[in-house]
Design brief:
about 200 residues; 5 strands; alpha/beta; Rossmann fold; about 50% helix; five-stranded parallel sheet; 11 helices; single chain; about 10% strand
Length: about 200
């Protein structure tokens, strides 16, 4: 029998908030071929994740412009307008988070997010006021699925791994959390998450 859940830990991107670089670049790049090249070669998620792991934009942006000088406007837009890649909440998850909060369930977040982007995004999102603590990769300079980030979160959150339910959309992150002893939910949509939380007696 699974250990009783004492706390719920949410990922942010694609669990609580939709995120796709395409949302930003579709606004500023009219040519389809150029748009696809931006997303697949220039401002890629793989490159973006370097900021999630702690690299400052002051290093990343000039380096990328030197590599792709014809795409300087898009690269600078990435740095200046990143919030536009986050169009809004994932349908249904904020309502569940509110219900968990109302029921007194301790809530935490464990997210891969660049520190500079987080400082612009967090102040406009009161939903995060419900969290007792948030561990962010950009501040720790280590990102999921590295077990080191789960160890940092465990220490900060103050609960045993087996007493925390970790919710993430990324299969590798779920696999790492499970190997660290956490209980997990591989997120696909709010309906499946609601059913799981209800089955665990949390809703």
């Amino acid at each position: 029998m699974a250990q009783k859940i004492e706390a719920v830990v949410f990922d942010v991107g694609r669990v609580l908030f939709e995120w796709d670089l395409r949302h930003l670049f579709e606004k500023i790049v009219d040519d389809h071929g150029r748009l696809e090249r931006v997303l697949t070669e220039v401002v890629t998620e793989k490159w973006h994740f370097e900021h999630d792991r702690g690299r400052p934009l002051a290093e990343m942006v000039p380096e990328r412009i030197a590599l792709f000088p014809k795409f300087e406007p898009e690269i600078r837009s990435y740095a200046a307008r990143f919030n536009e890649s986050i169009p809004g909440p994932v349908p249904g998850t904020h309502a569940m988070l509110e219900r968990l909060h109302e029921r007194g369930v301790p809530l935490f977040a464990l997210t891969d997010f660049g520190a500079e982007f987080w400082s612009r995004f967090r102040p406009n999102q009161p939903i995060f006021d419900h969290f007792q603590d948030i561990v962010m990769s950009g501040e720790e300079c280590v990102a999921k699925p590295d077990p080191a980030l789960f160890a940092i979160a465990q220490k900060r959150f103050g609960h045993a791994p087996g007493a925390m339910l970790f919710i993430d959309d990324n299969r590798d992150n779920i696999k790492s959390a499970r190997s660290c002893g956490w209980q997990v939910h591989h997120f696909s949509d709010a309906g499946h998450l609601h059913a799981d939380l209800k089955a665990r007696g949390l809703l």
